Amino acid sequence: MTDPEQKDGAxxxxxDLLLGAAVAGGAALVxxxxxxxxxxxxxxxxxxxxxxxxxxxTKLLGAPTSPVGTRSRFVTASRTPTGEVTGTSFTPLQDLxxxxxxxxxxxxxxxxxxxxxxxARHTLTVHGxxxxxxxFTVEDLRRFPQVxxxxxxECSGNGRGAYRDPKPDLTPQKIAGMTSxxxxxxxxxxxxxxxxxxxxxxxWFLAEGGDACLLARSIPMPKAYDDALVVWAQNGEPxxxxxxxxxxxxxxxYEGNANVKWLRRLEVGMRPWMTRWETAKYTDPLPGGIxxxxxxxxxxxxxxxxxxxxxxxxxxxxxxxxxxxxxxxxIAKVEVSTDNGKNWHEAELQGPSLPKAHVRFAYMxxxxxxxxxxxxxxxxxxxxxQPTRAKLIEVRGKGTDYHFNPIYGWRVAADGAITFxxxx
Amino acid sequence: MRAIKSYSLRRSVVPxxxxxxxxxxxxxxxxxxxxxxxxxxxTSQEIAAxxxxxxxxxxxxxxxxxxxxxxxxxxxxxxxxxxxPKGEGMPPxxxxxxxxxxxxxxxxxxxxxxIAKTIGNYWSNATTLFDYIRRAMPxxxxxxxxxxEVYALTAHLLSANGLLPATAVLDSASLMQVKMPxxxxxxxxxxxxxxxxx
Lengths: 424, 198
What we know:
heterodimer, A: alpha+beta, Sulfite Oxidase, Chain A, domain 2, Immunoglobulin-like, 2 domains, 5-stranded mixed sheet, 5-stranded antiparallel sheet, about 15% helix, B: mainly alpha, disordered N terminus
Protein backbone atom coordinates (compact mmCIF):
# COMPACT_ATOMS: atom_id res chain seq x y z
CA MET A 1 0.00 0.00 0.00
CA THR A 2 1.25 3.42 -0.82
CA ASP A 3 0.54 6.31 1.45
CA PRO A 4 1.95 9.69 2.31
CA GLU A 5 4.22 8.24 5.01
CA GLN A 6 6.18 6.64 2.24
CA LYS A 7 7.29 9.96 0.89
CA ASP A 8 10.67 10.73 2.27
CA GLY A 9 10.17 14.42 2.48
CA ALA A 10 10.07 16.95 -0.26
CA UNK A 11 12.03 19.92 -1.39
CA UNK A 12 10.85 23.41 -0.62
CA UNK A 13 8.02 24.44 -2.85
CA UNK A 14 8.27 27.44 -5.12
CA UNK A 15 5.78 29.17 -2.84
CA ASP A 16 7.96 28.57 0.20
CA LEU A 17 10.89 30.12 -1.60
CA LEU A 18 8.87 33.11 -2.74
CA LEU A 19 7.43 33.53 0.71
CA GLY A 20 10.82 33.24 2.33
CA ALA A 21 12.25 35.77 -0.05
CA ALA A 22 9.35 38.11 0.51
CA VAL A 23 9.63 37.92 4.28
CA ALA A 24 13.38 38.13 4.17
CA GLY A 25 13.22 41.23 2.03
CA GLY A 26 10.48 42.77 4.12
CA ALA A 27 8.87 43.91 0.87
CA ALA A 28 8.54 42.69 -2.69
CA LEU A 29 5.16 41.08 -2.05
CA VAL A 30 3.99 42.08 -5.49
CA UNK A 31 3.55 39.15 -7.82
CA UNK A 32 2.90 36.58 -5.10
CA UNK A 33 -0.30 34.55 -5.03
CA UNK A 34 -2.86 36.12 -2.68
CA UNK A 35 -2.52 33.41 -0.05
CA UNK A 36 1.25 33.68 0.07
CA UNK A 37 0.99 37.45 0.19
CA UNK A 38 -1.34 37.40 3.18
CA UNK A 39 0.86 34.85 4.94
CA UNK A 40 3.90 36.98 4.31
CA UNK A 41 2.09 40.00 5.71
CA UNK A 42 0.94 37.99 8.73
CA UNK A 43 4.51 36.90 9.37
CA UNK A 44 5.92 40.36 8.98
CA UNK A 45 5.34 41.26 12.63
CA UNK A 46 7.27 38.26 13.94
CA UNK A 47 9.97 38.09 11.28
CA UNK A 48 11.65 41.47 11.16
CA UNK A 49 13.19 42.63 7.91
CA UNK A 50 16.76 41.48 7.60
CA UNK A 51 19.43 44.04 8.34
CA UNK A 52 22.92 43.86 6.88
CA UNK A 53 25.31 41.71 8.89
CA UNK A 54 27.63 44.15 10.64
CA UNK A 55 31.38 43.89 10.25
CA UNK A 56 31.72 44.22 14.03
CA UNK A 57 28.59 43.54 16.07
CA THR A 58 30.22 45.17 19.13
CA LYS A 59 30.09 48.55 17.41
CA LEU A 60 26.36 48.58 16.68
CA LEU A 61 23.33 48.43 18.97
CA GLY A 62 21.51 45.12 18.69
CA ALA A 63 17.85 44.29 18.18
CA PRO A 64 15.23 45.11 20.83
CA THR A 65 13.26 42.61 22.87
CA SER A 66 10.38 40.82 21.19
CA PRO A 67 7.15 39.06 22.22
CA VAL A 68 8.11 35.74 20.65
CA GLY A 69 11.64 34.68 19.83
CA THR A 70 12.73 33.33 16.47
CA ARG A 71 15.69 31.25 15.40
CA SER A 72 18.87 32.91 14.29
CA ARG A 73 18.77 33.75 10.61
CA PHE A 74 21.77 31.46 10.22
CA VAL A 75 19.79 28.42 11.40
CA THR A 76 17.88 26.65 8.66
CA ALA A 77 16.62 23.48 10.33
CA SER A 78 13.20 22.67 8.93
CA ARG A 79 10.69 19.91 8.43
CA THR A 80 9.78 18.53 5.02
CA PRO A 81 6.15 19.40 4.33
CA THR A 82 4.55 17.85 1.28
CA GLY A 83 1.81 20.43 0.99
CA GLU A 84 -0.94 17.82 1.39
CA VAL A 85 -3.44 17.77 4.25
CA THR A 86 -2.99 14.01 4.66
CA GLY A 87 0.76 14.24 4.45
CA THR A 88 3.81 13.95 6.61
CA SER A 89 6.59 16.30 7.61
CA PHE A 90 9.81 14.89 9.03
CA THR A 91 12.00 16.13 11.89
CA PRO A 92 15.52 17.22 10.83
CA LEU A 93 17.33 14.87 13.22
CA GLN A 94 20.72 15.76 11.76
CA ASP A 95 20.29 19.42 12.78
CA LEU A 96 19.38 18.74 16.43
CA UNK A 97 21.39 18.06 19.55
CA UNK A 98 20.51 16.66 22.96
CA UNK A 99 17.25 14.73 23.14
CA UNK A 100 14.34 17.21 23.17
CA UNK A 101 12.83 17.96 19.78
CA UNK A 102 11.89 21.65 19.46
CA UNK A 103 8.08 21.70 19.36
CA UNK A 104 7.95 23.42 15.99
CA UNK A 105 10.18 20.73 14.49
CA UNK A 106 8.25 17.75 15.91
CA UNK A 107 7.34 15.52 12.96
CA UNK A 108 3.80 15.73 11.62
CA UNK A 109 1.39 13.12 10.36
CA UNK A 110 -2.23 14.09 9.79
CA UNK A 111 -4.98 12.13 8.11
CA UNK A 112 -7.35 15.01 7.39
CA UNK A 113 -5.43 18.18 8.10
CA UNK A 114 -4.94 20.14 11.32
CA UNK A 115 -8.28 21.18 12.87
CA UNK A 116 -8.75 24.62 14.37
CA UNK A 117 -10.25 23.86 17.80
CA UNK A 118 -11.42 26.49 20.29
CA UNK A 119 -10.33 25.32 23.76
CA ALA A 120 -13.35 27.07 25.28
CA ARG A 121 -15.66 24.78 23.31
CA HIS A 122 -13.60 21.60 22.99
CA THR A 123 -14.42 18.84 25.46
CA LEU A 124 -13.29 15.31 26.18
CA THR A 125 -16.30 13.05 26.72
CA VAL A 126 -15.87 9.77 28.60
CA HIS A 127 -18.70 7.26 28.31
CA GLY A 128 -19.57 3.63 27.63
CA UNK A 129 -18.91 1.19 30.45
CA UNK A 130 -18.62 3.88 33.12
CA UNK A 131 -20.70 4.72 36.18
CA UNK A 132 -20.79 8.43 35.35
CA UNK A 133 -20.46 9.65 31.75
CA UNK A 134 -18.37 12.81 32.05
CA UNK A 135 -17.25 15.76 30.00
CA PHE A 136 -13.99 17.64 30.62
CA THR A 137 -12.55 20.85 29.24
CA VAL A 138 -8.81 21.51 29.22
CA GLU A 139 -9.32 23.74 32.25
CA ASP A 140 -11.01 20.82 34.02
CA LEU A 141 -8.12 18.50 33.20
CA ARG A 142 -5.62 20.98 34.63
CA ARG A 143 -7.18 20.48 38.08
CA PHE A 144 -6.23 16.79 38.22
CA PRO A 145 -2.80 15.80 39.54
CA GLN A 146 -0.39 16.84 36.81
CA VAL A 147 2.20 14.54 35.35
CA UNK A 148 5.25 15.71 33.38
CA UNK A 149 7.26 13.08 31.55
CA UNK A 150 9.67 12.86 28.63
CA UNK A 151 8.55 10.44 25.91
CA UNK A 152 9.20 9.88 22.23
CA UNK A 153 6.42 9.61 19.69
CA GLU A 154 7.29 7.66 16.55
CA CYS A 155 5.17 6.98 13.49
CA SER A 156 5.02 3.23 12.83
CA GLY A 157 5.83 3.95 9.18
CA ASN A 158 9.13 5.61 10.16
CA GLY A 159 11.94 4.27 7.97
CA ARG A 160 9.82 2.55 5.34
CA GLY A 161 11.68 4.15 2.45
CA ALA A 162 15.12 3.11 3.75
CA TYR A 163 13.85 -0.42 4.48
CA ARG A 164 12.30 -1.05 1.10
CA ASP A 165 14.52 1.04 -1.13
CA PRO A 166 17.81 2.12 0.46
CA LYS A 167 19.48 4.86 -1.58
CA PRO A 168 22.85 6.57 -1.05
CA ASP A 169 21.36 10.06 -0.70
CA LEU A 170 19.14 9.27 2.31
CA THR A 171 19.65 11.46 5.40
CA PRO A 172 18.75 10.94 9.08
CA GLN A 173 15.67 13.07 8.45
CA LYS A 174 14.58 10.77 5.63
CA ILE A 175 15.39 7.42 7.27
CA ALA A 176 14.15 8.20 10.79
CA GLY A 177 12.61 11.70 10.91
CA MET A 178 9.21 10.47 12.01
CA THR A 179 10.31 10.20 15.62
CA SER A 180 10.41 13.13 18.02
CA UNK A 181 10.93 13.49 21.74
CA UNK A 182 9.18 15.93 24.07
CA UNK A 183 8.46 16.74 27.67
CA UNK A 184 4.70 16.26 27.91
CA UNK A 185 2.41 17.52 30.69
CA UNK A 186 -1.05 16.17 31.35
CA UNK A 187 -3.22 13.92 33.47
CA UNK A 188 -3.17 10.15 33.89
CA UNK A 189 -5.87 8.39 31.88
CA UNK A 190 -6.23 6.27 35.03
CA UNK A 191 -7.41 9.35 36.95
CA UNK A 192 -9.93 10.19 34.21
CA UNK A 193 -11.21 6.60 34.22
CA UNK A 194 -11.52 6.71 37.99
CA UNK A 195 -13.40 9.99 37.88
CA UNK A 196 -15.91 8.56 35.39
CA UNK A 197 -16.09 5.25 37.24
CA UNK A 198 -14.89 2.92 34.48
CA UNK A 199 -16.12 -0.58 35.22
CA UNK A 200 -13.49 -3.05 36.30
CA UNK A 201 -14.47 -5.68 33.72
CA UNK A 202 -13.86 -3.29 30.78
CA UNK A 203 -11.17 -4.57 28.38
CA TRP A 204 -10.68 -1.80 25.80
CA PHE A 205 -11.33 1.87 25.24
CA LEU A 206 -11.85 3.76 22.02
CA ALA A 207 -9.95 7.03 21.61
CA GLU A 208 -11.37 9.39 19.01
CA GLY A 209 -9.97 12.64 17.66
CA GLY A 210 -11.89 15.76 16.73
CA ASP A 211 -10.31 16.17 13.30
CA ALA A 212 -12.03 15.86 9.92
CA CYS A 213 -11.64 12.07 9.80
CA LEU A 214 -12.50 11.47 13.48
CA LEU A 215 -9.45 9.22 13.73
CA ALA A 216 -10.20 6.44 16.19
CA ARG A 217 -8.14 3.65 17.77
CA SER A 218 -9.02 0.90 20.24
CA ILE A 219 -6.57 0.72 23.14
CA PRO A 220 -6.27 -2.14 25.67
CA MET A 221 -7.57 -1.02 29.07
CA PRO A 222 -4.37 -2.05 30.94
CA LYS A 223 -2.52 0.75 29.12
CA ALA A 224 -4.95 3.25 30.69
CA TYR A 225 -3.88 2.08 34.14
CA ASP A 226 -0.19 1.80 33.23
CA ASP A 227 1.31 5.00 31.84
CA ALA A 228 -1.25 6.53 29.44
CA LEU A 229 -1.76 10.30 29.65
CA VAL A 230 -4.05 12.93 28.23
CA VAL A 231 -1.64 15.83 27.68
CA TRP A 232 -2.21 19.49 26.97
CA ALA A 233 1.34 20.77 27.08
CA GLN A 234 4.59 20.03 25.27
CA ASN A 235 7.99 21.39 26.24
CA GLY A 236 6.54 23.91 28.68
CA GLU A 237 3.80 25.45 26.54
CA PRO A 238 0.39 24.40 25.23
CA UNK A 239 0.46 21.73 22.52
CA UNK A 240 1.15 22.92 19.00
CA UNK A 241 -1.93 22.64 16.75
CA UNK A 242 -0.19 19.98 14.67
CA UNK A 243 0.47 18.00 17.85
CA UNK A 244 -3.15 17.90 18.96
CA UNK A 245 -4.07 21.25 20.53
CA UNK A 246 -5.87 21.52 22.87
CA UNK A 247 -5.41 17.91 24.10
CA UNK A 248 -4.12 14.58 22.87
CA UNK A 249 -3.69 11.03 24.04
CA UNK A 250 -0.09 10.11 24.86
CA UNK A 251 0.59 6.39 25.01
CA UNK A 252 4.29 6.01 25.87
CA UNK A 253 6.10 3.62 23.56
CA TYR A 254 3.08 3.02 21.32
CA GLU A 255 3.04 3.71 17.58
CA GLY A 256 2.29 7.33 16.76
CA ASN A 257 -1.20 7.02 15.30
CA ALA A 258 -2.56 5.50 18.54
CA ASN A 259 -1.57 8.73 20.36
CA VAL A 260 -4.82 10.28 19.14
CA LYS A 261 -4.55 14.04 18.63
CA TRP A 262 -7.33 16.61 19.16
CA LEU A 263 -8.84 14.02 21.52
CA ARG A 264 -12.61 14.43 21.92
CA ARG A 265 -13.93 11.08 23.17
CA LEU A 266 -13.01 8.01 25.21
CA GLU A 267 -15.51 5.16 25.08
CA VAL A 268 -15.01 2.27 27.48
CA GLY A 269 -16.00 -1.21 26.29
CA MET A 270 -15.35 -4.92 26.12
CA ARG A 271 -13.80 -5.46 22.67
CA PRO A 272 -11.89 -3.50 20.05
CA TRP A 273 -13.94 -1.51 17.55
CA MET A 274 -12.00 -2.64 14.46
CA THR A 275 -11.69 0.88 13.06
CA ARG A 276 -10.18 1.35 9.62
CA TRP A 277 -6.86 2.41 11.18
CA GLU A 278 -6.48 -0.82 13.18
CA THR A 279 -7.61 -3.19 10.40
CA ALA A 280 -7.05 -1.91 6.88
CA LYS A 281 -4.27 0.56 7.73
CA TYR A 282 -1.87 0.12 10.67
CA THR A 283 -1.49 -3.66 10.48
CA ASP A 284 1.69 -5.48 9.52
CA PRO A 285 1.60 -8.14 6.78
CA LEU A 286 3.90 -11.06 7.61
CA PRO A 287 5.09 -14.12 5.68
CA GLY A 288 2.62 -17.00 5.76
CA GLY A 289 -0.46 -15.08 4.68
CA ILE A 290 -1.07 -13.29 7.98
CA UNK A 291 -0.97 -9.73 9.29
CA UNK A 292 -0.08 -8.61 12.80
CA UNK A 293 -2.78 -6.48 14.42
CA UNK A 294 -2.67 -4.11 17.41
CA UNK A 295 1.13 -4.03 17.12
CA UNK A 296 1.42 -1.01 19.37
CA UNK A 297 4.93 -1.12 20.85
CA UNK A 298 7.81 0.40 18.92
CA UNK A 299 10.87 -1.87 18.82
CA UNK A 300 14.26 -0.59 20.01
CA UNK A 301 16.09 1.49 17.44
CA UNK A 302 19.06 3.81 17.02
CA UNK A 303 20.35 6.11 14.34
CA UNK A 304 23.63 7.97 13.97
CA UNK A 305 22.81 11.62 13.32
CA UNK A 306 26.41 12.81 13.00
CA UNK A 307 28.34 12.20 10.87
CA UNK A 308 25.77 11.54 8.19
CA UNK A 309 24.86 12.09 4.55
CA UNK A 310 25.04 14.41 2.73
CA UNK A 311 27.85 15.94 4.77
CA UNK A 312 31.58 15.37 4.51
CA UNK A 313 34.00 14.61 7.29
CA UNK A 314 37.54 15.81 7.91
CA UNK A 315 40.44 13.68 9.12
CA UNK A 316 41.08 13.44 12.82
CA UNK A 317 38.89 12.98 15.87
CA UNK A 318 35.13 13.17 15.41
CA UNK A 319 32.26 12.24 17.69
CA UNK A 320 29.88 9.63 16.35
CA UNK A 321 26.60 10.78 17.85
CA UNK A 322 23.01 9.75 17.56
CA UNK A 323 19.71 8.85 19.18
CA UNK A 324 18.37 5.57 20.56
CA UNK A 325 14.94 4.68 21.95
CA UNK A 326 12.65 1.76 22.75
CA UNK A 327 8.89 1.49 23.18
CA UNK A 328 9.44 -1.17 25.84
CA UNK A 329 11.46 0.81 28.34
CA UNK A 330 14.97 2.13 28.78
CA ILE A 331 17.85 1.80 26.36
CA ALA A 332 20.43 -0.33 28.15
CA LYS A 333 23.28 -0.02 25.67
CA VAL A 334 24.21 1.42 22.30
CA GLU A 335 27.13 0.00 20.36
CA VAL A 336 28.90 1.60 17.44
CA SER A 337 30.82 -0.15 14.69
CA THR A 338 33.27 1.63 12.40
CA ASP A 339 33.96 -1.42 10.23
CA ASN A 340 30.50 -2.37 8.97
CA GLY A 341 29.64 -4.60 11.91
CA LYS A 342 32.82 -6.67 12.35
CA ASN A 343 33.64 -5.08 15.69
CA TRP A 344 31.33 -3.25 18.08
CA HIS A 345 32.25 -0.65 20.73
CA GLU A 346 30.01 0.50 23.53
CA ALA A 347 29.04 4.16 23.17
CA GLU A 348 28.48 6.59 26.02
CA LEU A 349 24.84 7.25 26.92
CA GLN A 350 24.70 10.98 27.53
CA GLY A 351 22.33 11.93 30.31
CA PRO A 352 19.78 9.62 31.91
CA SER A 353 18.30 6.83 29.81
CA LEU A 354 14.60 7.44 30.46
CA PRO A 355 11.99 4.80 29.67
CA LYS A 356 10.34 5.19 26.26
CA ALA A 357 12.37 8.31 25.49
CA HIS A 358 15.20 9.28 23.19
CA VAL A 359 18.66 9.01 24.70
CA ARG A 360 21.72 10.45 22.99
CA PHE A 361 24.80 8.30 22.52
CA ALA A 362 28.31 9.29 21.55
CA TYR A 363 31.53 7.55 20.64
CA MET A 364 34.79 9.39 19.90
CA UNK A 365 36.45 8.15 16.74
CA UNK A 366 39.59 9.05 14.80
CA UNK A 367 39.09 8.99 11.07
CA UNK A 368 42.33 8.40 9.20
CA UNK A 369 41.09 8.80 5.65
CA UNK A 370 40.09 5.20 4.87
CA UNK A 371 36.71 4.12 3.54
CA UNK A 372 34.65 2.94 6.50
CA UNK A 373 31.03 2.07 7.29
CA UNK A 374 29.60 3.39 10.56
CA UNK A 375 26.74 1.55 12.26
CA UNK A 376 24.86 1.84 15.55
CA UNK A 377 22.97 -0.89 17.39
CA UNK A 378 20.66 -0.39 20.37
CA UNK A 379 19.82 -2.88 23.13
CA UNK A 380 16.89 -2.14 25.42
CA UNK A 381 16.30 -3.21 29.02
CA UNK A 382 14.31 -6.28 27.92
CA UNK A 383 17.46 -7.57 26.17
CA UNK A 384 16.08 -6.88 22.69
CA UNK A 385 18.86 -6.06 20.21
CA GLN A 386 18.20 -3.88 17.15
CA PRO A 387 18.31 -6.32 14.21
CA THR A 388 19.87 -6.11 10.78
CA ARG A 389 17.76 -5.29 7.76
CA ALA A 390 18.32 -8.83 6.45
CA LYS A 391 16.94 -10.30 9.67
CA LEU A 392 13.87 -8.07 9.56
CA ILE A 393 13.21 -8.97 5.92
CA GLU A 394 13.54 -12.64 6.87
CA VAL A 395 10.95 -12.50 9.66
CA ARG A 396 8.60 -9.80 8.33
CA GLY A 397 9.02 -9.75 4.56
CA LYS A 398 10.09 -6.88 2.36
CA GLY A 399 6.50 -5.83 1.79
CA THR A 400 5.56 -5.44 5.45
CA ASP A 401 4.07 -2.05 6.04
CA TYR A 402 5.01 -0.74 9.48
CA HIS A 403 7.61 -1.10 12.24
CA PHE A 404 11.03 -0.70 10.64
CA ASN A 405 13.99 -0.68 13.00
CA PRO A 406 17.00 -2.13 11.17
CA ILE A 407 20.59 -1.17 11.93
CA TYR A 408 21.41 1.80 9.73
CA GLY A 409 24.75 2.68 8.22
CA TRP A 410 26.74 5.59 6.84
CA ARG A 411 29.54 4.94 4.35
CA VAL A 412 32.50 7.31 4.66
CA ALA A 413 34.43 7.45 1.38
CA ALA A 414 38.19 8.04 1.26
CA ASP A 415 37.56 11.68 0.33
CA GLY A 416 35.32 12.19 3.37
CA ALA A 417 32.01 12.16 1.47
CA ILE A 418 29.23 10.36 3.37
CA THR A 419 26.38 8.34 1.90
CA PHE A 420 23.64 6.12 3.33
CA UNK A 421 24.58 2.43 3.58
CA UNK A 422 21.41 0.38 3.57
CA UNK A 423 22.66 -3.21 3.42
CA UNK A 424 23.93 -3.63 6.96
CA MET B 1 33.00 7.39 68.43
CA ARG B 2 32.44 9.28 65.20
CA ALA B 3 30.20 6.53 63.77
CA ILE B 4 27.96 6.61 66.81
CA LYS B 5 27.58 10.36 66.61
CA SER B 6 26.62 10.25 62.97
CA TYR B 7 24.04 7.52 63.71
CA SER B 8 22.43 9.57 66.45
CA LEU B 9 22.21 12.54 64.09
CA ARG B 10 20.33 10.47 61.52
CA ARG B 11 17.94 9.25 64.19
CA SER B 12 17.03 12.78 65.08
CA VAL B 13 16.69 14.00 61.49
CA VAL B 14 14.34 11.33 60.18
CA PRO B 15 11.43 11.92 62.59
CA UNK B 16 11.70 15.65 61.93
CA UNK B 17 11.33 15.05 58.19
CA UNK B 18 8.26 12.89 58.81
CA UNK B 19 6.73 15.63 60.94
CA UNK B 20 7.19 18.15 58.12
CA UNK B 21 5.48 15.80 55.65
CA UNK B 22 2.61 15.19 58.07
CA UNK B 23 2.05 18.92 58.37
CA UNK B 24 1.75 19.13 54.55
CA UNK B 25 -1.10 16.63 54.39
CA UNK B 26 0.29 13.15 54.89
CA UNK B 27 2.39 12.59 51.79
CA UNK B 28 4.30 14.54 49.18
CA UNK B 29 1.93 16.02 46.65
CA UNK B 30 -1.16 16.01 48.83
CA UNK B 31 -4.07 13.66 49.37
CA UNK B 32 -5.79 11.30 46.92
CA UNK B 33 -9.56 11.26 47.22
CA UNK B 34 -11.73 8.55 45.68
CA UNK B 35 -12.85 11.18 43.18
CA UNK B 36 -11.83 14.76 42.59
CA UNK B 37 -15.28 15.99 41.56
CA UNK B 38 -13.84 17.58 38.42
CA UNK B 39 -15.74 17.90 35.13
CA UNK B 40 -19.45 17.69 34.57
CA UNK B 41 -21.94 14.95 33.73
CA UNK B 42 -22.28 14.34 29.99
CA THR B 43 -25.94 14.22 28.94
CA SER B 44 -27.28 11.34 26.86
CA GLN B 45 -28.06 13.83 24.05
CA GLU B 46 -24.48 15.08 24.02
CA ILE B 47 -23.16 11.55 23.87
CA ALA B 48 -25.60 10.49 21.15
CA ALA B 49 -24.41 13.37 18.97
CA UNK B 50 -20.82 12.09 18.89
CA UNK B 51 -21.17 8.37 19.62
CA UNK B 52 -20.99 7.33 15.97
CA UNK B 53 -18.80 4.25 16.15
CA UNK B 54 -19.91 0.89 14.76
CA UNK B 55 -18.49 -2.27 16.29
CA UNK B 56 -17.61 -5.57 14.60
CA UNK B 57 -20.70 -7.11 16.25
CA UNK B 58 -22.91 -4.51 14.57
CA UNK B 59 -23.34 -2.41 17.72
CA UNK B 60 -23.98 1.17 16.66
CA UNK B 61 -25.31 0.40 13.16
CA UNK B 62 -28.18 2.83 12.59
CA UNK B 63 -31.57 2.22 10.99
CA UNK B 64 -31.72 2.79 7.26
CA UNK B 65 -30.85 1.05 4.02
CA UNK B 66 -29.27 1.64 0.62
CA UNK B 67 -28.99 -0.22 -2.67
CA UNK B 68 -25.93 -1.09 -4.72
CA UNK B 69 -27.29 0.94 -7.62
CA UNK B 70 -27.94 4.04 -5.50
CA UNK B 71 -24.45 3.64 -4.11
CA UNK B 72 -22.97 3.55 -7.61
CA UNK B 73 -24.66 6.87 -8.40
CA UNK B 74 -23.40 8.53 -5.20
CA UNK B 75 -19.94 7.07 -5.77
CA UNK B 76 -19.72 8.55 -9.27
CA UNK B 77 -20.64 11.99 -7.92
CA UNK B 78 -18.76 12.15 -4.63
CA UNK B 79 -15.99 9.53 -4.62
CA UNK B 80 -14.74 8.76 -8.11
CA UNK B 81 -12.67 11.91 -8.46
CA UNK B 82 -10.18 10.54 -5.89
CA UNK B 83 -10.75 6.79 -5.84
CA UNK B 84 -11.22 6.40 -9.62
CA PRO B 85 -14.41 5.50 -11.51
CA LYS B 86 -13.98 1.80 -10.69
CA GLY B 87 -12.19 2.10 -7.37
CA GLU B 88 -8.85 1.62 -9.07
CA GLY B 89 -7.49 4.63 -7.20
CA MET B 90 -4.91 7.14 -8.33
CA PRO B 91 -1.70 5.81 -6.78
CA PRO B 92 0.34 6.80 -4.96
CA UNK B 93 -1.89 9.36 -3.22
CA UNK B 94 -5.11 7.34 -3.53
CA UNK B 95 -4.55 3.58 -3.50
CA UNK B 96 -7.01 1.17 -5.08
CA UNK B 97 -10.01 0.17 -2.96
CA UNK B 98 -11.53 -2.34 -5.39
CA UNK B 99 -9.82 -5.52 -6.59
CA UNK B 100 -9.58 -9.25 -5.97
CA UNK B 101 -6.51 -10.39 -7.91
CA UNK B 102 -4.86 -13.73 -7.14
CA UNK B 103 -1.86 -12.29 -5.26
CA UNK B 104 -4.21 -10.45 -2.93
CA UNK B 105 -6.38 -13.54 -2.49
CA UNK B 106 -3.30 -15.40 -1.26
CA UNK B 107 -2.64 -12.58 1.20
CA UNK B 108 0.90 -12.25 -0.15
CA UNK B 109 1.35 -8.66 0.99
CA UNK B 110 4.51 -9.32 3.01
CA UNK B 111 6.29 -10.52 -0.13
CA UNK B 112 5.28 -7.69 -2.40
CA UNK B 113 4.38 -4.21 -1.27
CA UNK B 114 2.97 -3.47 -4.72
CA ILE B 115 -0.10 -5.65 -4.19
CA ALA B 116 -2.92 -3.18 -3.51
CA LYS B 117 -4.73 -3.68 -0.22
CA THR B 118 -8.37 -3.41 -1.25
CA ILE B 119 -11.65 -3.74 0.58
CA GLY B 120 -12.03 -7.13 -1.07
CA ASN B 121 -8.67 -8.55 -0.03
CA TYR B 122 -7.56 -6.71 3.13
CA TRP B 123 -10.57 -5.34 5.08
CA SER B 124 -11.54 -7.85 7.76
CA ASN B 125 -14.93 -6.42 8.81
CA ALA B 126 -17.76 -5.03 6.67
CA THR B 127 -18.79 -2.90 9.66
CA THR B 128 -15.48 -1.03 9.35
CA LEU B 129 -16.47 0.13 5.89
CA PHE B 130 -19.72 1.66 7.13
CA ASP B 131 -17.98 3.22 10.15
CA TYR B 132 -15.15 4.73 8.11
CA ILE B 133 -17.30 6.15 5.32
CA ARG B 134 -19.63 7.72 7.86
CA ARG B 135 -16.87 9.29 9.98
CA ALA B 136 -14.40 10.37 7.33
CA MET B 137 -15.79 10.44 3.80
CA PRO B 138 -16.03 12.18 1.40
CA UNK B 139 -12.57 13.50 2.24
CA UNK B 140 -13.46 17.14 1.59
CA UNK B 141 -16.98 16.94 3.07
CA UNK B 142 -16.85 14.50 5.99
CA UNK B 143 -20.07 13.90 7.88
CA UNK B 144 -22.21 15.10 4.97
CA UNK B 145 -23.77 11.75 4.03
CA UNK B 146 -27.07 10.43 5.39
CA UNK B 147 -27.12 6.96 6.93
CA UNK B 148 -29.01 5.69 3.85
CA GLU B 149 -26.27 7.08 1.62
CA VAL B 150 -23.60 5.41 3.75
CA TYR B 151 -25.45 2.08 3.46
CA ALA B 152 -25.71 2.59 -0.31
CA LEU B 153 -22.00 3.38 -0.70
CA THR B 154 -21.08 0.43 1.50
CA ALA B 155 -23.29 -1.78 -0.68
CA HIS B 156 -21.74 -0.48 -3.89
CA LEU B 157 -18.16 -0.99 -2.69
CA LEU B 158 -18.89 -4.49 -1.40
CA SER B 159 -20.56 -5.34 -4.71
CA ALA B 160 -17.67 -3.88 -6.73
CA ASN B 161 -15.38 -6.19 -4.74
CA GLY B 162 -17.56 -9.19 -5.57
CA LEU B 163 -18.98 -9.52 -2.08
CA LEU B 164 -22.60 -8.56 -2.71
CA PRO B 165 -24.94 -9.06 -5.71
CA ALA B 166 -25.53 -6.02 -7.92
CA THR B 167 -29.23 -6.12 -7.02
CA ALA B 168 -28.66 -6.07 -3.25
CA VAL B 169 -30.10 -3.61 -0.76
CA LEU B 170 -28.03 -3.28 2.41
CA ASP B 171 -29.26 -2.64 5.94
CA SER B 172 -27.87 -3.45 9.38
CA ALA B 173 -29.00 -7.07 9.26
CA SER B 174 -27.70 -7.83 5.75
CA LEU B 175 -24.42 -5.98 6.43
CA MET B 176 -23.74 -8.42 9.27
CA GLN B 177 -24.17 -11.35 6.84
CA VAL B 178 -21.34 -10.22 4.53
CA LYS B 179 -18.31 -12.52 4.66
CA MET B 180 -15.04 -10.62 4.19
CA PRO B 181 -12.23 -12.62 2.51
CA UNK B 182 -9.54 -11.05 4.76
CA UNK B 183 -11.24 -12.15 7.98
CA UNK B 184 -9.14 -14.77 9.74
CA UNK B 185 -5.81 -13.51 8.39
CA UNK B 186 -5.11 -11.16 11.31
CA UNK B 187 -3.13 -12.28 14.36
CA UNK B 188 -2.40 -10.58 17.67
CA UNK B 189 0.97 -8.99 18.39
CA UNK B 190 3.39 -11.71 19.51
CA UNK B 191 6.40 -9.42 19.96
CA UNK B 192 7.56 -9.28 23.57
CA UNK B 193 11.01 -7.72 23.39
CA UNK B 194 13.82 -9.84 24.80
CA UNK B 195 16.07 -11.96 22.64
CA UNK B 196 13.68 -12.78 19.78
CA UNK B 197 13.11 -10.66 16.68
CA UNK B 198 9.63 -11.26 15.32
